[in-house]
Design a protein that fits this description.
By secondary structure, the chain is of the alpha+beta class. Helices cover 29% and strands 18% of the residues. It has a 5-stranded antiparallel sheet with strand order 1-2-3-5-4. Helix 2 crosses helix 3. The model has no long low-confidence stretch (mean pLDDT 97).
């Protein structure tokens, strides 16, 4: 399968579609999930084209994992979380819906189930959660 330059994350990277950006570095962008399964649910994506883990370069994977770890620490602090869930899907049969490599990072609390998929969150709630993460980021070493 080939990479589709018109996927939603490619459009977000080109700023053709708005997103709530939380963090970025030279190689990755972190945005809020608009259909979060937990408060603080973010997506880590590489800035360069990669359909999924099956065609990503080791450099893309390493950059993504560094940002996943950074976000994990920030989410733990911002949401006083007891743990982190990281999800990553590959190809349609593996559950992938957007064909640009991405990692879901979700703060978790004991006894609290994930919300069902596919429910849009209010923009003001997404912004509030993003602000909490941005506040926590400078305290992460």
């Amino acid at each position: 399968m080939s990479y589709d330059n018109d996927n939603i994350f490619a459009k977000i990277l080109r700023e053709e579609i708005p997103s709530e950006r939380v963090y970025e570095d030279e190689h990755t962008l972190v945005i809020m999930d608009i259909m979060p399964r937990a408060n603080g649910h973010v997506l880590v994506i590489p800035k360069t084209p990669a359909r999924n883990v099956l065609d990503a370069t080791p450099k893309q994977l390493a950059a993504c994992m560094a940002s996943v770890q950074k976000m994990s620490y920030a989410l733990m602090k911002a949401f006083d979380a007891g743990g982190i869930t990281i999800q990553q899907f590959n190809e349609a049969a593996g559950g992938q819906e957007v064909f640009h490599l991405h990692f879901h990072v979700l703060p978790r609390h004991a006894g609290v189930k994930l919300r069902p998929p596919g429910n849009m969150e209010k923009p003001e709630v997404i912004k509030q959660n993003a602000d909490r993460i941005r506040t926590a980021l400078p305290t992460i070493t």
